[in-house]
Structures are given as C-alpha cells and as structure tokens.
Amino acid sequence: MLLELNDVEVDYGKVRALKGISITVAEGEMVSIVGANGAGKTTTLKTICGLLKPSAGEVVFDGRRIDGRPTEEIIRRGVAFCMEGRRLFPFMSVLENLHMGAYSRRDREVKAELDRVFELFPDLKDRQKQAAGTLSGGQQQMVTIGRSLMSRPKLLMLDEPSLGLAPLVVSQVARTIQELNKQGLTVLLVEQNARMALRISDRAYALEVGEVTVEGASDELSKSDYVRRAYMGV
User: Fold this and answer.
1) How far, in whole angstroms, is CA 53 from its chain's centroid?
2) Residue 191, CB half-sphere, CA atoms under 13 Å: how many?
3) Which among 24, 64, 79, 145 is placed 20 to 30 Å from 4, CA to CA?
4) Which residues are bridge partners to 15 per DSSP?
5) Could you tell me which residues come within 8 angstroms of residue 23 by beta carbon, excluding any fewer than 6 positions away?
6) Coil, helix or strand at residue 55
7) 14-44 burial: b if 16+ Cβ within 10 Å, else e
8) What count of Cα atoms within 13 Å lies in the side-chain half-sphere of residue 216?
9) Phi/psi at 221 (nearest 5 deg)?
10) What is the pTM of this model?
11) What is the pLDDT along the chain (234 residues), one digit of tens a residue?
C-alpha cells in the first residue's frame, strides 16, 4: 500500500475529531472519502500531511511512518495537498503561483513539469502572466491543481475540488482528475459531492462524525440504499 492510516485518532482540545479510522490507498488507485460537513474529511487530509498530529494510531506512506513528521518533509516524500478554497496568492501571476508548487524541488525538471501542467490546462498557458486572483473559479481550481502537480507527487490529495463551481466546470475538473489518475498518479479525493466522487473513484470510504461508516468499491457503494439516502439525496 502507498498510504495506510491505522486506527488514527485526532483531537481538537477535548473534542475527538477522528475516532480510530483506518484507510488504505494502493499505488495507482483513486480513493474517495465522502461525508457531510464536520465528518472529519479535511481533518484526515491534514493529519496525513502533518498539519495535525494524531493522538493515537499511525500514518504510513510509501513504507515509512510519517505521522508527527514536519509537513515539508512529507511533501518532499511525495504527498501533495490541494486544499479546499483554492488558497492562491491572488496578486501573483499564474506562473508565479505554479512555481510556488516546486519550491521544495532541487532537480532540473521543473520546466518539464510546467509544460505538463500547461498541456493539461491550456487555458493557463494563455494566462500565465495574469494575476491569479482575477481568474474565474474554475481557472483558479486549475491553478491550484497545477501548483500541486509541480511538486511531482506520488499521492495527490484533493479537498473539495468541486466546491463553489458551476456544474459544467465540475465535470471538467472531474475529467481532469480522472486523466491524472489514468496517467498513473495516485489520488485521494475528499468530496461532499458524493455522486461525482463515486463516479470517478475506484474505492470509497464514508465518514460520519469521525468514524468510517461504510467502505468498498465505489460502484457498489453508489448502488447502496444507505449511501444514496445519506450522501446522494436519493
């Protein structure tokens, strides 16, 4: 397994946000985590990348335990976290924002990675000198994903990439994530949009109040009456 969370607990003061969750992601897989606000989805991603320290359990990435390690070290090992809300540098250009994603790299292939991002997102190549804050929501999401790719990750974690986007743009973002996965990138996708997440992922976990309530193949979960009622509004 590329990523393993084993009985992970996380506390916010006296509140237990994660209650012993176990999640695995194999190399080359796309795994989704679905659930309502407050379920613990973002907490899970923050714990993986070192922004939060578990009070119990362990996080193992690429054969090494990483819980408690500095975030910079975890990024260098190959984890990229595409955060909710895009979090761009609005007054910097598209190109400058993308280069920020490669800040930890010391190799000579950054230009090749940039070309790959522009091939994936042609709109950004035409707007690389434009201030990121003046882009549309969909274009800003492209920059956010592209910035994460600039670190050349082994695992791309996406937190609510469809949030606040028009339906057509959501479909474009979903196709892009699928394409990255087809190219061999391992993806861990957090989404409230369970319908979209289950459609494009291989396996899925549903979180409720810090606990995994159901897990399995995404196509099977999408047919589950429980999942359809609880997460898809059917």
Assistant:
1) 18
2) 25
3) 145
4) 12
5) 3, 4, 5, 31, 33, 44, 205, 212
6) coil
7) eebbbbbbebbbeeebbbbbbbeeebbbbbb
8) 9
9) -65, -35
10) 0.93
11) 999 999 999 999 889 999 999 999 999 999 999 988 888 999 999 999 999 999 999 999 999 999 989 999 999 999 999 887 667 888 999 999 998 888 766 667 788 889 989 999 988 999 999 999 898 888 888 899 999 999 899 999 999 988 888 888 889 889 999 999 999 999 999 988 889 999 999 999 999 999 999 999 999 988 888 888 877 766
- For the chain, the helix, strand and coil percentages under 3-state DSSP, each to the nearest 5: 40, 25, 35
Whose tokens are 């714990």? That residue is 47
* C-alpha 19 chain-centroid distance: 21
Q: How far is CA 92 from the centre of its chain?
A: 23
Type of residue found at 230: A
**Residue count (the chain):** 234
